[in-house]
Amino acid sequence: MTSRIIARVGWALAAVVVATWLALVQVFWLPLRVGGVPVPLSVLAAPVGNLLLVGLAYRLSGSRAVAVLPALAWLVVALAAMVRRPEGDLVLVGTGTLGVFGILFLIAGVVAGAFACGRLLGAVRPPAPVTDPTAPDPTVPDPTVPGTPR
Known about the structure:
This protein has four helices and two strands; from the N terminus they run H-E-E-H-H-H. It is 61% helix and 3% strand.
């Protein structure tokens, strides 16, 4: 394996770990209250985190595939929080004020992740340099020019 592939795998792993940790923290911050008043910190952190992580993963790895991984990892954790466990526990509930915050959290995070990935994947890549097959090879000395080694 080349060092470039190893670096991309490392960045991919780091991006997934950070996105998973961020999603877990955001999910468990949803019921946050200060003095009995709900504070929807996760609703703000989800889009900001997804926008920043996707862009940062691309800048650090140089790979579009690696850049999409944080949004996917965030989505997997957020969707897993909606599934009821065998014991009956449910992290993202769908009722009351917390249900509204949960829906806003999911919508904001998914839209931000989709926007960041779409902006990245839809960007035009610079064209590959075109070489003229009739042009002389710059590494070969030209015998018609005086003073060039033969």
